[in-house]
Amino acid sequence: MSSMTQHDIPTGIITQVGICPEELVYSRNTGYASRMGQTTLARNIAALRKHLGMTQAAFAKRVGSAQANVSKWENEGRQPDAMPMSEMAALADVSVKDFTNSVWRPNSGDIAAEPPSLESIAAEHGWVLIDEIDLAFGMGATYLDPDRTPERLGVIPFAADWIRDMYRGSIMHLKVVRGRGDSMEPTIRDGDFVLIDTSRRRLDEQDVVWAVSYGELGMIRRLRQLPGGGVELMPDNAVVRPTEAHDGELHIMGRVIWIGRRM
Predict the structure, then answer these.
(1) Of 204, 205, 208, nearest to 187 (Cα)?
(2) Which of 5, 161, 163, 175 is most buried (CB neighbours < 10 A)?
(3) Is residue 213 part of a domain?
(4) Residue 34: per-residue pLDDT
(5) Phi/psi at 76 (nearest 5 deg)?
(6) Which structural domain, as residue segments, surrounds residue 66?
(7) Helical H runs in 9-143?
């Protein structure tokens, strides 16, 4: 798994399958025959969308409809409603009648192509994009600059359904960081992706894994409240000794809710 930027979007490969009108006329498949009057429109819609450089989700938003409808217009020959039809004709710079009945071919200077955004691609594929940030977390200990705003390194795509099943809060509270060091072996290895719920800032669960700052050190540790008011910071690696924090030395930055690694 790696971060994505807009430059990482792969160029799509579009294949076209031609349908002979004569075959439609004489076909026993009534589903094909019923599409005869809409084939030109379906192809025009697909051509316009591709000329604009949009995904189906982005195009649907542009013309005031839903992604599922765009798919039906292009692939099933469904007739669009009046409003999106009017918007498409305007984008194509032709009348609704011509866009419906005549083959539309774009002129290179007519419409400025719009590259698909990461958000529209994510929506089309059922992803949510979660920021990967550099909080300099170490599984040993890494010095934090208290005056530095965490750097946003990119985004990590997660399946939206999976995230919603696992997490009920706002996606904005989730951040991805990468662990460093070996003090949380074997639970977390160097380079693992760690998903943190930054809305959790209070020690309300014992012996689970938290992202914390201790003094000016960033680290990932299991935490245990001690009877005297201190907090024990426990590594999972048996050769690393635990630490105790007292008197405001410890600040919780979030609860670790998921760990992932490359296979």
Answers:
(1) 208
(2) 175
(3) yes
(4) 35
(5) -115, 0
(6) 6-109+118-122
(7) 21-26, 30-33, 39-51, 56-63, 67-75, 82-92, 96-101, 118-125
Task: Judge whether 1 lies within some domain.
Answer: no
Tokens (6 digits) for 97: 């009648």
pLDDT in tens, 201-237: 999 999 999 998 887 778 899 999 999 889 999 999 9
Could you tell me if 138 and 255 lie in one domain? yes
Residue with tokens 């530095």: 148
Instruction: Looking at the structure, tell me whether residues 135 and 252 fall in a common domain.
Output: yes
Amino acid at 189: R
Q: Classify residue 247 as left (phi > 0), alpha (psi -120 to 50) or beta.
A: left
CATH number for the domain spanning 193: value is 2.10.109.10
Whether 260 contacts 1, CB under 8 Å? yes
| Category of 207 on φ-ψ map: left (φ > 0), alpha (ψ -120 to 50) or beta | left
CA distance linking residue 244 with residue 117, whole number of Å: 47
